[in-house]
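Retry 2 of 3 after timeout on previous attempt. Resubmitting structure tokens to design endpoint.
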């Protein structure tokens, strides 16, 4: 009986794999990219996903088609986008952000979901551990590079000891990032001042309040609200002659002096490899959630010059990307 039962299970699994492989060969997958906001980091992650699908041997137009849905920073729209994808018979959702992942977890339980551009899939509700997770979900998490950023500050800017940042209490990812930064700062001997902001209209006043807290520098936590409203943070810091360090490439372009960013493009590429496994018949329940640790150092020489802060040449040479040319700080 045991042998017979095993044979039945094996046959069933082989039939399932055969159907999945046949479906992949004959069926064009409808992939829906569900995004919360439209910033350069999301565009990098999206480009990485498309590159990863191509690297996996999948061809756009033959093996899959992509629809991109973006909430333009409107939280109320996120659930409607997921519902629209389900109504359109999406074969897979690829989510970009914690809010879009959480909406997919609630509303797309019968569709494969692959997430990226998320600080922690587990804390967003994807599972109890990297191997014990929702059966239709897998993906890649990117916690902020706190230790790396604080090491740079300690090594190259030893007079900076008191840091400040805005955070949005309504964003799960920012709350988790705040907790992680607290722990890293205590280990490294830094003080952190936090000022909350709930909406984009709160950010200018919150940023002004932060600059009045006797801080040496801003170390801006990554988040959806602060990414879209970073201009207000950068402007307040410039008026107060306070340097800005951050964790998102878009903020380096927006005026942060030094950014230690997780590589959103590479993480998107890696998430696409997970998606390709599902498209070729793998069960997402058997694919562990992953943590992605690669970083990119970006320095903005124009921002440093505007504050009359000479960046150490060794730091500039180690940057993956330099904004503002080479004069004055090399």
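Retry 2 succeeded. Sequence:
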């Amino acid at each position: 009986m045991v042998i017979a039962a095993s044979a039945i299970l094996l046959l069933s699994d082989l039939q399932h794999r055969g159907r999945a492989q046949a479906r992949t060969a004959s069926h064009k997958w409808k992939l829906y990219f569900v995004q919360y906001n439209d910033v350069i980091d999301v565009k990098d992650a999206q480009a990485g996903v498309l590159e990863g699908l191509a690297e996996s041997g999948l061809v756009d137009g033959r093996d899959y088609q992509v629809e991109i849905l973006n909430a333009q920073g409107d939280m109320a729209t996120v659930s409607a986008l997921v519902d629209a994808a389900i109504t359109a018979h999406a074969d897979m959702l690829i989510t970009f952000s914690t809010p879009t992942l959480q909406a997919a977890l609630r509303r797309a339980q019968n569709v494969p979901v692959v997430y990226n551009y998320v600080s922690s899939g587990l804390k967003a509700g994807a599972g109890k551990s990297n191997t014990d997770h929702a059966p239709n979900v897998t993906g890649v998490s990117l916690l902020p590079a706190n230790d790396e950023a604080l090491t740079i500050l300690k090594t190259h800017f030893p007079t900076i000891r008191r840091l400040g940042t805005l955070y949005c209490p309504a964003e799960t990812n920012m709350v988790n990032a705040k907790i992680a930064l607290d722990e890293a700062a205590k280990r490294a001997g830094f003080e952190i001042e936090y000022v909350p902001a709930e909406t984009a209209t709160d950010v200018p006043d919150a940023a002004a309040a932060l600059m009045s807290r006797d801080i040496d520098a801003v170390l801006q936590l990554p988040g959806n609200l602060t990414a879209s409203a970073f201009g207000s943070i950068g402007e307040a810091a410039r008026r107060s002659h306070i340097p800005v360090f951050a964790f998102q490439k878009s903020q380096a372009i927006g005026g942060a002096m030094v950014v230690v960013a997780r590589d959103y493009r590479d993480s998107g590429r890696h998430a696409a490899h997970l998606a390709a496994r599902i498209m070729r018949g793998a069960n997402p329940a058997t694919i562990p959630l992953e943590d992605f640790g690669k970083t990119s150092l970006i320095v903005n020489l124009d921002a440093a010059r505007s504050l009359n802060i000479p960046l150490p040449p060794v730091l500039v040479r180690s940057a993956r990307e330099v904004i503002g040319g080479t004069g004055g700080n090399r």
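Attempt log closed. The first strand starts at residue 29 and ends at 35.
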